[in-house]
Write a structure and sequence with these properties.
This protein has 5 helices and 5 strands, in the order αβαβαβαββα. By secondary structure, it is of the alpha/beta class. It has one domain: Rossmann fold (3-Layer(aba) Sandwich), CATH 3.40.50. The strands form 2 sheets. It has a 3-stranded parallel sheet, covered by helices on one side. Strand 1, helix 2 and strand 2 form a beta-alpha-beta unit. 24% of the residues are buried. GO terms for molecular function: sugar-phosphatase activity. This is Fructose-1-phosphate phosphatase YqaB. Keywords: Hydrolase.
Length: 125
Amino acid sequence: MLETAHQNGVRQALVTMSLEMNVIDILEQLPRPYFAQIVTANMVTRHKPAPDPYVLALKRLDLPTSGSVAIEDSPAGLRSACDAGLNVIAVPCSGAIAPSDDYQIWETLAARGLPDLVAAGLAVG
């Protein structure tokens, strides 16, 4: 999904509450720099579940909330992305995620692609 989005000009950001020094090592192992922006715990005063990390990512990408999609795996991340006004996809990782009208739940990202992201609210083009 990262590759397909990248090939189609979708600007992507990684929004994580890990520290920047921990994230950089992991990102350097990817085949290319998929993320135009990175927001980490040391870049915001208020962490997830506050909307601040996503607000900062959107500002850095110069994107509106409408037409932007967040993929999250935790309740705190879901609240952060929803409160920032994004279209949100929940992908459970380490535990169940309660259904909500605020987001879609995908059990996995496997076999998902750009058409699925567009259907979830991503504006392309």
